[in-house]
Design brief:
The complex is a heterodimer of chains A (304) and B (276).
Chain A lengths: L6 E4 L2 E4 H33 L3 E2 L5 E2 L5 H6 L2 E2 L2 E2 L2 H32 L3 H12 L6 H11 L5 H8 L13 H25 L3 H9 L4 H29 L3 H6 L7 H9 L6 H24 L7
Antiparallel strand pairs in A: 1-2, 3-4, 5-6
Helix pairs in contact in A: 3-7, 3-9, 5-7, 7-9, 8-9, 9-12, 11-12
Chain B lengths: L10 H24 L16 H8 L1 H34 L4 H16 L2 H16 L9 H27 L2 H8 L4 H30 L2 H6 L7 H11 L4 H25 L4 H5 L1
Classes of the chains: A mainly alpha (304), B mainly alpha (276).
Chain lengths: 304, 276
């Protein structure tokens, strides 16, 4: 129908589609070029490097093989060990549980913000978003103090018998979860709130009129409408948690290793194996792409 | 279709919502209190003091880190705002085909969704590759600025783009009907309305740069320590209460900038236009 050379009206000007596109390329050129050189090219380089070898003294030996995939699966010259797979499994477990916790707290927060008047809602949303713009290291550090052995949360946990007399909440798994959730919560709430704002309460009323029980009203009337928002918030929480490095490094204690920490070790730590670090990065790339595809499958376009 | 129910929330969901707010703010408030606590180890309240702040200002390492952080934030914000704004306009006003549109959407959204550490290792590897041709890619301010611009562009584009969508195409057509040239219509009608979004995008980029830790950690060099890197380093060495003071200051600045963003976003159009 619209051939690229037929004249059409754009912004009140008679021009052709191809001429508009040429000018568009001129406008998008600088920005896209930047992303091409410093985002696409590095990512491709990473993908290639993942199949190279570690040379002596941490240099890169450009002979390609599948050795890093084997190493990822636990095979080395000493035979098979489950360590790497366990770290990946633990990272996914923590990411999934963190995401669920964020939804459990985030959905009530979204409704709570939505139950206020218009100007109050903007204020509360800002209140939720502001901490996400403050420094991650600072917030994590604050939890280090707060969950330490001399602080009330640890007393309460000891009193309730959750932990032993000489233990503290920090460092440990509990501290990691608290740190992860408090760090990801704002990103989970934002898309949830948007979908609460768009809710059609008529459907909820209809379900009630038809004598649905509260649980079913919530499930069929509210949650099903919120699906795009829930998926967006899962994507925004799950993948970043998977690659999180600061929280587990500071709150988990010395032996607490997730994918992010393992990557850091390959690049700067004692291991110094960049190609294997890149292979671990590919695990993150695959999970990001999968979650984005899942997001588009449910019909999502924008996250907010 | 009623907009929203006036029925109050069930008690347990209100408790969860308050718990969420606590989770977000308790750490920040704790750091704030500790920054005025005279007791060095911070387990008990040892009286009110400004000592940590005065010591902080005399700390040479903090001074250099501050200078680095500010230069990095300002330069990367300027570059990413210019590139991002032009990119957003180019994507928005051109009649791209569906495939191109999807390509642009993906290139803008992917950096927002992927973990920071991925961009960090990709950049640090490619900088090592570039270094075999030229030494300007040695870890330092330049690599930091490049990395920060790369993650800031997407956010600028997203903010500017959403404003372009809400402005719509009617105004530019009206301006053209009144014999404005295309360039005239853009510069005198659209850009003034867009300016608040551009400033909001720039402020967002600025705070992102100010608070970035992971990417800076990977691409910085020994002479380009930023404040977040300094804080992380001192946590590893053992905690000094000066860090509380420093954290409180950074938090206050971020809060101030975010309030500016919120206010800028509220003012939809410049006053001159609202009167008419």
């Amino acid at each position: 129908m619209a051939n690229s050379n037929t004249t059409e009206v754009f912004e009140g000007k008679l021009t052709t589609r191809s001429r508009m596109r040429k000018f568009g390329l001129l406008l998008t050129g600088p920005g896209m070029l930047w992303l091409l050189v410093f985002l696409l090219l590095p990512t491709i380089f990473l993908l290639v490097m993942a199949f190279a070898q570690r040379g002596s003294y941490g240099t890169i030996d450009w002979t390609f093989s599948l050795d890093n995939v084997k190493k990822l699966l636990g095979y080395s010259s000493f035979g098979w060990s489950a360590d790497n797979l366990l770290i990946i499994w633990r990272s996914f477990k923590i990411a999934v549980i963190t995401t669920i916790l964020c939804l459990v707290v985030g959905i009530p927060m979204a409704f709570w913000i939505g139950s206020h008047g218009k100007s109050m809602r903007t204020l509360l949303l800002a209140l939720v978003m502001v901490p996400s713009c403050t420094n991650l290291v600072i917030r994590t550090y604050a939890w280090m103090i707060l969950l330490g052995s001399q602080m009330p949360p640890t007393w309460i946990a000891r009193f309730l018998g959750i932990i032993g007399e000489n233990e503290a909440l920090y460092p440990g798994t509990f501290a990691v979860y608290i740190g992860m959730v408090s760090c990801m919560l704002p990103f989970a709430v934002l898309p949830l709130y948007t979908s609460v704002e768009r809710l059609d309460w008529g459907i909820v009323e209809a379900a009630k009129d038809l004598y649905a029980k509260p649980v079913r009203v919530f499930y069929h009337g509210i949650l099903s409408q919120m699906m795009p928002g829930i998926v967006a918030s899962v994507v925004l929480t799950l993948v970043p948690t998977l690659g999180m490095y600061v929280v587990s490094d500071l709150l988990g204690g010395a032996k607490y290793i997730l994918i992010g920490n393992m990557i850091q070790q390959q690049f700067f730590g004692t291991a110094l194996d960049w190609p294997f670090g890149a292979m671990l990065g590919i695990v993150l790339i695959i999970s990001s792409v999968l979650s984005l595809v899942a997001f588009q499958k449910v019909g999502g376009k924008n996250f907010v | 279709m009623s907009r929203y129910s006036n029925r109050p929330l069930p008690l347990f969901s209100r408790i969860l919502a308050y718990a969420g707010i606590l989770l977000l703010y308790v750490p920040l408030i704790l750091v704030l209190i500790q920054s005025f606590n005279a007791n060095k180890h911070g387990q008990t309240w040892g009286g009110f003091t400004f000592d940590w702040y005065t010591k902080l200002f005399d700390n040479v390492l903090v001074q250099t880190a501050t200078v680095n952080t500010v230069i990095l934030a300002v330069v990367s914000t300027i570059i990413s705002t210019v590139l991002g704004t032009i990119l957003a306009i180019g994507i928005h006003r051109t009649p791209w085909g569906k495939k191109m549109q999807n390509f642009f959407d993906m290139s803008i959204n992917i950096p927002v969704v992927t973990p920071d550490i991925l961009m960090a290792i990709a950049l640090v590897s490619v900088f090592a590759l570039f270094r075999s041709f030229t030494s300007i890619f040695d870890p330092g301010m330049l690599t930091l600025i490049i990395a920060h611009v790369t993650f800031e562009i997407s956010f600028v584009v997203l903010v500017v783009q959403s404003r372009l969508v809400s402005i719509g195409s009617e105004q530019i057509e009206a301006a053209r009907d009144l014999y404005a040239t295309t360039a005239g219509a853009w510069f005198r009608v659209i850009i003034p309305q867009l300016s608040t979004a551009i400033i909001a995008g720039a402020l967002l980029a600025f705070t992102l740069s100010l608070d970035d830790f992971i990417i800076s950690f990977f691409v910085s060099g020994p002479k380009s320590t930023t404040l977040p890197l300094y804080i992380y380093g001192s946590l590893k060495r053992g905690i000094s209460p000066q860090i509380h003071a420093l954290s409180t200051l950074i938090f206050s600045i971020t809060l101030f900038v975010m309030l500016l963003v919120a206010m800028k976003n509220k003012i939809k159009a410049p006053k001159a236009l609202q009167k008419k």
